[in-house]
Amino acid sequence: MSGADLSDRAFVLATDLDGTFLGGSEAQRDALYRWIEARRDSVGLIFVTGRDPDFIVDLTRGTPIPTPDYVVGDVGTTIAHVPDHGHPVPIEALEAEIAEIWGNAGERIRHVLKGHPGLALQPTEFRYRVSYDLDPVAFDPAAVERVEAMGFDALISADRYFDVLPRGVSKGPSLRRLVSHLGVEGRRVLCAGDTLNDLSMLICGLPAVAVGNSEPRLLEALPAAPHIHRAEAHGAGGIMEAIAAFRLHPEIPEPPTGRERKDAV
């Protein structure tokens, strides 16, 4: 039922992938995925991730992982609809401003950061971002100043990744634009994440959960707020914990019992 209208769904999960939707024990993931698939008429699914949309479709094909209705990919620089059994289709009306802010900046950014200590350019060329693998020992933080001086945003996450993004564009703002575009009430959306590149999503004003295996820097940056849940359970288990805590669906998912609840992958 992917790609359908979400405005009439009782609940919409907007979740990061690695460490979040794909995190937790096998039993936790199985419980959450089965719960979603059995309720696709009342539960919407948006993946909000640093991954590119085509990777996401390949990830879900032939696996128990539910296919999303929409994708906010590439750290918020791609906003796409996922038609049934098809590849994601960028929503031009939502991406136009992102494209305008970015311009044709990729080559210029790669030139400025070429050879910068601690940064290794990722081989994939993204449309509206430039991404690097980061070596935290060798990294020179002057890269952040250089990027900001050019009029772009620098984002470091998990002490492993360095992304250069259009100014003001990230997971949170792009998700809010998609939710508004779809006519979904914000109170019916749960944002879920585990690393610092999820921060803008978790503080964008929608109900949110930082799963139990979240990186310490994310937890330190999160404000204390009634709409932000700090889960004990990891990954998928933390998502189920938050759905229950906020009572976001009439049928609350039942997490597996015993020690499985806090195991992580």
Which descriptors would you attach to this protein?
265 residues, 32% helix, 2 domains, 8-stranded mixed sheet, alpha/beta, 12 strands
Can you describe this structure?
This protein has 265 residues and is of the alpha/beta class. It folds into two domains: 180 residues, HAD superfamily/HAD-like (Rossmann fold); 69 residues, Alpha-Beta Complex (Hypothetical Protein Ta0175, Chain: A, domain 2). It contains ten helices and twelve strands. An eight-stranded mixed sheet has the order 5-4-3-2-1-10-11-12, with helices on both faces. Strands 6-7-9-8 form a four-stranded antiparallel sheet. Strand 6 and strand 7 form a beta hairpin. Helix 2 packs across helix 10. The chain is globular, with a radius of gyration of 18 Å. The C terminus is likely disordered.
**Helical element count?**
10
What is the string of SSEs from the N terminus onward? EHHEHEEEHHEEHEEHEHEHEH
Work out the radius of gyration.
Answer: 18 Å
Q: Approximately how much beta-strand content do the residues carry?
A: 15-25%
Largest sheet: 8 strands, mixed
Number of strands: 12
The structural domain count equals: 2
CATH superfamily grouping of the largest domain:
HAD superfamily/HAD-like
Shape: globular
Strand order of the largest sheet: 5-4-3-2-1-10-11-12
Mean pLDDT: 93
How would you summarize the topology of this molecule?
Elements: E1 11-15, H1 17-21, H2 26-37, E2 43-48, H3 53-60, E3 70-73, E4 78-81, E5 89-90, H4 92-102, H5 106-112, E6 119-121, E7 130-134, H6 142-149, E8 152-157, E9 161-166, H7 171-182, E10 189-193, H8 199-202, E11 208-210, H9 216-221, E12 228-230, H10 235-246
Parallel strand pairs: 1-2, 1-10, 2-3, 10-11, 11-12
Antiparallel strand pairs: 3-4, 4-5, 6-7, 7-9, 8-9
